[in-house]
Every structure is written in structure tokens, then in C-alpha cells.
Write a structure and sequence with these properties.
globular, alpha/beta, two-stranded antiparallel ribbon, TIM Barrel, 8-stranded parallel β-barrel, binds beta-D-glucopyranose
Length: about 425
């Protein structure tokens, strides 16, 4: 039997992820504007939105408070980033995924903020000093308010502003970066903002959602081309939210519906962006079982965000995408909202077993990046979902590695042989 250590080479990237809006604090972007306007309503609607979750008894007091829905200082990662990098070190990690905040770098149209650029320059240098490979995301749901006011990614003619920002930041800090994620989960961003009206601009239009998806596909292509023009040494991808959708029985309808859902959720976008990718960034959280034309999941314990926990299904996702696109894969996000740290160790174990088994069958996986490094601000849910390897005490700012993270750190140490 091959040992785990031999499956995961010494270059394998072991890391954790964050996104600027969810951790930095002190931001002014299209989301912070929206949070101030909607915090009260979101708190008042909490019972209706999440009252049926298994976790409701535990989360209700936080979920019903307006301040839960304002990112405000978040975890103050902007100032405390070195403390957070210490956590990576404690877990023996050699990679870190983060996003740069466009609204800091270009707070008003066409005006670059030298302090913000200097900050991110120092930020990636600090990672390098610690031998941690930076994986930089350029758009992770947050946008400068001026760009959103112009119509954001609903308008194709706005893509040029994004490309200009990409060129600027890569020119400024690119020398310390190799892996670049242009766009995080284009379809999730389009779905939440343009179809489900759960995030700004809160529209409910299927044609608009698809328009945004297509403009983001185009934005990826433009950004990837601009980055590659600067240097061919950059490795570029999107981070694609990847679900595993499978028929629950052999009925024709279940098989056809699962196939169509899987195509629309994953393949449609990947088929269009993959030709402009050097690797595939895949985020995996959930799988869906289909009976007839409906989703009907198995009765398993649910995470705090009420998601079915099927970590081992990542194996099917990896195999399917590798077979089709033949690109090396980095798992750019994977994790579970689990405040009590009941499932995280099991989740990671099952995931790594599945990754290993896919790799043994030839799938070229180059890294595993856990979501998230610390607890953070979870978009329209606010602060109560706890995805962090490290717990954050929002009153004191104190970070504490959860027991599962301490275990994970020991496992990484062994696997890396460090
Ligand atoms: C997003 C993250 C988010 C995570 C958990 C992904 O869809 O990229 O920003 O926090 O899932 O919901």
C-alpha cells in the first residue's frame, strides 16, 4: 500500500483561506453600504430565513441581532494579519489563500491608494519570509461602491475597469506571487445577487443572473490574458464552487435531471473558462441527491448552516473535472460551519482520504486549502457561522486554534515530513 506521505509530494500545498471582506474590517465597498441599510431587516427576518435550521436554538440569539449583519471590524485581519500568519505556522502550513480588496486599492475611480498597495506588498512579502505560498484572489464578491454604482458586472463594458485593476495590482505585487485566482465562484456571486436577492444588488432576474455569469467568464478571460502578458510564470484559475449532483435511483427522470443540474452548476462555466486556466481551483462543500426532478438529500447530520455533510464525495468531483479538463487541481476551499468543532476533524479526515484515493487513481491534485483560517463574516448570515480552524472571540480579537485544527496541524507536519 502506498503511504499517505508518498501520495502527497513535498510540494503539495497545505493551507487555509480567507477573503478580504470577510476578515479585514474597516472597509467601504458595495457590501458594507448594503449591510448598514439592511442589518435591521435581516435580523428581523432571521427566524423566517434560518429558523428551520437544526442549529437554530444555538444561533438564534446572534442571528436576531442587527450588529450580526454588519461586517464592521470583522476579525481586524488588516491589522492583525501577522497573528493570523502565526496560526498558519502553528499548523505547519505552506500555503495561504487571501483576496486583495479592490475598494481599498482604487477607492475612487482611477485613483490608486499607495498605502493600500504598500500594505499588500508587505503582506505577501511577509508570507514569503515565512515560506508560505500566497494564492491571491482578485475578486471575492466585494467591489468598490463606484464600480457597483456603474452597474458592476451586469455591464460588459465595465469589465475594462476590473482588468485595469488586475494589471495594476499584479504589476505592483506580482513578483512575490505565482498562483492567482481571478474570480471566486462566479455563479454563486451571480445567484445570490441577481436571482435570489440575498446580496446586493438584490435583483431577482434569471436573464440578469446569466448576463453576470457571462460577463464574469469574459472578465476571467480578459484578466488571465492580461496576467499572462505580464509573465507566463503566473498560474491562473477561477475558484469554482463544485457540487456533486447524483441521481438517487435508476429512474430515467432522476438521471436526466441530475445530469442537467450538474451541467448547469459546474460544467457550463468550467467548459468556458478552462481554456484560460493553468490549473483548476475547486471549492467543495456540498453534494445533492436527486429523485425525479427534485433534490432530496439523505438524512445525515447537518452542519450549522444546514448543509448536508458529505465530505467523501469530493472524490467524484475531482475525478470528473480531471477527466474532462486534464488540468492540475488545487482545492481552493473546503470546510464546514461547526461552532462546537464536533465534525471538523472527521470532515478533514474523510476529505483527505477521498483526495488521496482520487490521486492514487491518477488525478493530479496539487493542494488542499481549508476554509477558513479563522472564523469570519459569512456574507448574508453574518457572524454566527463558524468555519474557522481558529475560533475568534469578537470581543477581544483573540484567536484560538480549535482542537480539530491542532490535530490537523500535527497531521500536516507528518505528511510534509517537517
Ligand atoms: C465562499 C466563501 C464562503 C464559503 C462558506 C464559499 O462559497 O467562497 O466566501 O464563506 O463558501 O459559505
Amino acid at each position: 500500500m502506498t503511504k499517505s506521505k508518498e501520495v502527497f509530494s513535498k510540494h503539495f500545498l497545505w493551507g487555509a483561506a480567507t477573503a478580504a471582506h470577510q476578515v479585514e474590517g474597516g472597509l467601504h465597498n458595495q457590501l458594507t453600504v448594503w449591510e448598514y441599510e439592511h442589518a435591521r431587516v435581516l435580523a428581523a427576518q432571521a427566524q423566517y430565513q434560518v429558523g428551520h435550521y437544526d442549529s437554530w436554538d444555538r444561533i438564534q440569539s446572534a442571528a436576531q441581532k442587527p450588529e450580526n449583519y454588519v461586517s464592521d471590524q470583522a476579525t481586524n485581519h488588516y491589522e492583525l494579519y501577522k497573528k493570523d500568519f502565526d496560526l498558519l505556522g502553528k499548523m505547519h502550513m505552506n500555503a495561504f489563500r487571501f483576496s486583495v480588496e479592490w475598494s481599498r486599492i482604487e477607492p475612487t475611480e482611477g485613483a490608486w491608494n499607495p498605502e493600500a498597495i504598500a500594505h499588500y506588498k508587505e503582506y505577501v512579502k511577509e508570507l514569503r519570509r515565512r515560506d508560505i505560498e500566497p494564492i491571491m484572489t482578485l475578486f471575492h464578491f466585494s467591489l468598490p461602491a463606484w464600480f457597483a454604482d456603474k452597474g458592476g458586472f451586469e455591464k460588459r463594458s465595465n469589465v475594462k475597469y476590473f482588468t485595469r485593476f488586475v494589471e495594476k495590482i499584479v504589476k505592483e505585487i506580482g513578483s512575490d506571487v505565482k498562483y492567482i485566482i481571478t474570480i471566486n465562484e462566479p455563479e454563486v456571486y451571480a445567484l445570490l445577487g441577481y436571482k435570489l436577492a440575498m446580496l446586493p444588488p438584490m435583483k431577482q432576474s434569471i436573464p440578469k443572473m446569466w448576463r453576470v455569469v457571462h460577463n464574469l467568464i469574459y472578465a476571467h478571460k480578459k484578466a488571465a490574458q492580461a496576467i499572462h502578458r505580464m509573465s507566463s510564470r503566473y498560474k491562473v484559475s477561477i475558484a469554482k464552487n463544485s457540487v456533486y449532483i447524483y441521481p438517487g435511483d435508476d429512474a430515467w427522470l432522476s438521471r436526466v435531471s441530475a445530469g442537467i443540474m450538474q451541467y448547469l452548476a459546474d460544467d457550463y462555466i468550467l467548459a468556458r473558462v478552462a481554456k484560460h486556466c493553468d490549473f483548476l481551483g475547486l471549492n467543495y462543500y456540498q453534494s445533492f441527491r436527486v429523485y425525479g426532478y427534485r433534490i432530496h438529500n439523505p438524512e445525515t447530520p447537518l452542519s450549522d448552516t444546514d448543509w448536508v455533510m458529505a465530505p467523501a464525495d469530493i472524490e467524484f468531483v475531482l475525478e470528473r473535472h480531471y477527466k474532462r479538463f486534464k488540468l492540475p487541481i488545487i482545492i481552493t476551499e473546503n470546510g464546514v460551519a461547526d461552532e462546537r468543532d464536533e465534525y471538523r476533524k472527521w470532515w478533514i479526515t474523510e476529505t483527505l482520504k477521498a483526495v488521496q484515493s482520487a490521486m492514487k487513481r491518477g488525478v493530479d491534485v496539487r493542494g488542499y486549502i481549508h476554509w477558513t483560517l479563522t472564523d469570519n463574516f459569512e456574507w448574508m448570515y453574518g457572524r454566527w457561522p463558524r468555519f474557522g480552524l481558529a475560533a475568534v472571540d469578537y470581543k477581544t480579537g483573540k484567536r484560538t486554534l480549535r482542537p480539530s485544527a491542532q490535530w490537523f496541524g500535527r497531521a500536516i507536519k507528518k505528511l510534509r515530513g517537517v
